[in-house]
């Protein structure tokens, strides 16, 4: 996005409309500044009227996906026990660390486990598996 912003500056003329460099999917795009301001105001108006779903949609696809992931990771209640008799017939996946602990692994494994449980599958932890 930085390179696209520099190109926008180099190509700008005094008559050019102000723009914001943003991402659309994986592509850097230029969006007119006033269009962004209007969209921001419409999000605020939707929230003021408690139209939450409309406000989320106005924020965009990435925001919507991130919100769904956040809800899934924070609201799921893990089962009290994991056993074959309570299994839903889905996949059985295992987590095993190899070698020394690494920064960020607790968060990564927690997200993985909650995703697996949310899907209805079973996750197992392997203790003292192998040396790295």
UniProtKB/TrEMBL annotation:
Annotated metabolic or biological route of this protein: Carbohydrate degradation; glycolysis; D-glyceraldehyde 3-phosphate and glycerone phosphate from D-glucose: step 3/4
Catalytic activity: beta-D-fructose 6-phosphate + ATP = beta-D-fructose 1,6-bisphosphate + ADP + H(+)
Origin species: Medioppia subpectinata
Keyword presence, Zinc: no
One of the GO BP terms on file: fructose 6-phosphate metabolic process
Protein name in the entry: 6-phosphofructokinase
Positions of the Phosphofructokinase domain: 92-132
Cofactor(s), names only, from the UniProt record: Mg(2+)
Subcellular location: Cytoplasm
GO MF annotation terms: 6-phosphofructokinase activity; AMP binding; ATP binding; fructose-6-phosphate binding; identical protein binding; metal ion binding; monosaccharide binding
Pfam families xrefs: PFK
GO CC annotation: 6-phosphofructokinase complex
UniProt EC number: 2.7.1.11
Alphabetical UniProt keywords: ATP-binding, Cytoplasm, Glycolysis, Kinase, Magnesium, Metal-binding, Nucleotide-binding, Transferase
Domain of life: Eukaryota
Gene3D superfamilies given in the database record: 3.40.50.450, Phosphofructokinase domain
Statement: the UniProt record of this protein carries the keyword Oxidoreductase: no
